[in-house]
Every structure is written in C-alpha cells, then in structure tokens.
Specification:
Layout lengths: L2 H11 L2 H13 L6 H7 L4 H13 L3 E6 L2 E6 L1 H15 L4 H4 L4 H4 L4
Antiparallel strand pairs: 1-2
Helix pairs in contact: 1-4, 2-4, 3-4
Length: 111
C-alpha cells in the first residue's frame, strides 16, 4: 500500500462518527445498510451520515451500490485489511513488542 493511501484511510478513520460507521458496517456484513439506517445506528442524521460516508468512500474503506431507490453501503474488507496489514507488518516492521499485543493466530497468515 502506498503511504498516501494509508494517510487517506487513517485520516478518514480519525473522526468519531466515521469510526462508528465502520464498526456498524462491519457488523452489518455483506448486507450493508442505507445512509438512514447507518445514521440511526450511529446517532447521526442521514445527511450527516452521507457526508461521512463520502469521506470513507473516498478513502476506499466503504463501497456503495444502488439498489432500487436506495444506496447500500458496505465495509470494504479488502481495504481495511490492507490498512491493518500495513500498520502491523510494514509500519511496525513486525516488531515483537507490538505483535505481542495482537492475536497472532489471525495476523500470522498476513505478515
């Protein structure tokens, strides 16, 4: 991953509502949710949720698709995984002290 992509992703995630949106979309799975449903789940108006979803989509952390009259948003698991992988494997250079804090059963197959 390019450093600029990581910076975009980290910038997008560094806002409370956006982080809550990502958490909600991860728990929503492949079904995803609408801006209204997301806003309700994270206590934000649909327009505020749409504003934050646009930032997350620019950072490629969220994907959207039109379904009839609705836009359905889903977490982009591939991009989220790349961000986590970068932080653990590239940025931290597999530092044992950092990795000791992680569940290595999950991360060993990626680093």
């Amino acid at each position: 991953m390019k450093e600029s992509q990581i910076l975009d992703a980290m910038g997008a995630l560094s806002q409370k509502t956006r982080l809550r949106i990502i958490r909600h979309l991860i728990s929503s799975g492949d079904e995803g949710d609408t801006a209204g449903g997301i806003g309700e789940a994270v206590n934000a108006s649909p327009s505020k949720a749409s504003f934050h979803l646009a930032a997350l989509e620019r950072a490629r952390l969220v994907k959207s698709r039109r379904l009839s009259r609705n836009i359905i948003y889903r977490a982009n698991y591939t991009q989220l995984g790349k961000v986590i992988n970068y932080l653990l494997c590239d940025c931290c250079q597999n530092n044992p002290a950092v990795l000791a804090c992680c569940d290595m059963k999950v991360f060993n197959k990626y680093c």
